[in-house]
Amino acid sequence: MVIGVDIGTTSTKAVAYDTDGRQLGTHAVGYPLDAPLPGRAEQDFDLIHAAVLETVRTVAAGLAGPVAGLSFSSAMHSLIGLDADDNPLTPVVTWADARASGQAERLRVAANGLALHRRTGTPVHPMAPLPKLVWYAEQKPQVFARVARWVGIKDLLLLRLCGELVTDHSLASGTGLLDIHRLDWDPEALEIAGITAAKLPRLVPTTTVLPGLTPGAARATGLPAQTPVVVGAGDGPLANLGLGAVRPGVLACSIGTSGALRVMVEQPAVDPLGGVFCYALTEHRWVVGGAVNNGGIVLGWAGDALAPELAEQTEEELLALAARAPVGSGGLIMLPYLLSERAPHWSSLARGAYVGLTHGHRREHLVRAALEGVCQQLAVVLRSVRAAGNEVREVRASGGFARSPLWRQMLADALGLPVRFPAGHEGSGFGAALLGMQALGLVPSVDVAADLVEIAETVTPDPAAAATYAALLPLHEELYDALLPTFTSLRRLAPGLPPEPPPAAPPA
């Protein structure tokens, strides 16, 4: 049995599996994502550390036999500054933190911006640690000067558990600091960030097995000190394993608060226009794809803003309202950039917009257009995945949206592909456990994921609906370019305007 530990943005979940893919125990602990000021999205590392210990201890206590090892998944793009004694000088700055928007935009449009993206695999975007480091150097120079090492959440956690400061190739490939073709820190990126490799953890493969737990960590988890600990990887690449999307042509799609598309490849590559990311999983497995900021959060906004009397009722009521509108929402298009946007443009300037409103549109059209906007944005990302040279013939999907038959069908229609929904697996947690099994020699390869993941339902595109969405997709794509000057002007005018209302909850 291997316990996969998935360190997420708002909770940590530990899940135990055996080598047949059977789930033997699970436990989750939540914690806040703090937004003390607009644009900030931070966490307290001590709360995450405590959650990891509690989830592992609870799951291990309920198992009938020994644990063969622990293996870790972590949210990507986090950044923590440590002092010389490896104590945090900063909060955990998460991917959702947007303070480095100005620095990211400046780096992205620079002459070397696209080359940097294609070399590191990480878009030049405020989510990534590279622009965050530039922000710290420019806005918090005293803190920046005091930091002895810059690390991510999982790096510091492994230091606390095992006494070794390392970072895996997967999380490193999401920093904007790693040359993904050499699997070493990129000299130009380090120079831009104003740091040296000595201020970063030692790079290791995701399948690296650390020697065991410290005595304190063994007591806190209830596991023997000699329990092997597999370093693990980022949650995005591991989600492909959890869905069984490991073979060529099989795309993983996840829609929670945000969303993402990822396909697994054998060689790192970014499309010529820099529309996708490329992150490592193992030496011969990479994921190419794109993330969108606006997934399920758009449905929540639509309920609050357009149908507040349904807010106290079930999500099904809001989706039933959307179902009353026709496919294509009567020619109404929504750009769902409520929390700005990531793929494929990777600019923090974007704002949401409705285009095509007429006197005949009602709120069911507005709600449906919001959902269609999310699916159409994913279809735009799919185009970039294909532009990077990847064949896609099947989609495997997970996330809260999968509870809705309307949204499942809408996704299949917008992507124009069959969408398969696996049963009973915990995504990145299962992926972490599988990677741990490979590292410990319990399974021959992570490729077994394709056979271990059972498909519960397949949704095929409706030809007429798919044709409607395909006809509208070019308009959706054109609108970003057409409105970019307006987005830019709004950013410039923002300091002199009344402040925008805060979101109902920070992104998760």
UniProtKB/TrEMBL annotation:
One Pfam family per UniProt: FGGY_N
Cited InterPro entries: ATPase_NBD, Carb_kinase_FGGY, Carb_kinase_FGGY_CS, FGGY_C, FGGY_Carb_Kinase, FGGY_N
GO biological process terms on file: carbohydrate metabolic process
Domain Carbohydrate kinase FGGY N-terminal: 1-242
Keyword Kinase: yes
Every Carbohydrate kinase FGGY C-terminal domain range: 251-439
Keyword Transferase appears in the UniProt entry: yes
Coiled coil: none
UniProt GO MF annotations: kinase activity; phosphotransferase activity, alcohol group as acceptor
Keywords: Kinase, Transferase
PANTHER family referenced in this protein's UniProt entry, alphabetically: GLUCONOKINASE, SUGAR KINASE
Family statement drawn from the similarity comment of this UniProt entry: Belongs to the FGGY kinase family.
Protein known as: Carbohydrate kinase
Species of origin: Micromonospora rosaria
Higher taxonomy: Bacteria, Bacillati, Actinomycetota, Actinomycetes, Micromonosporales
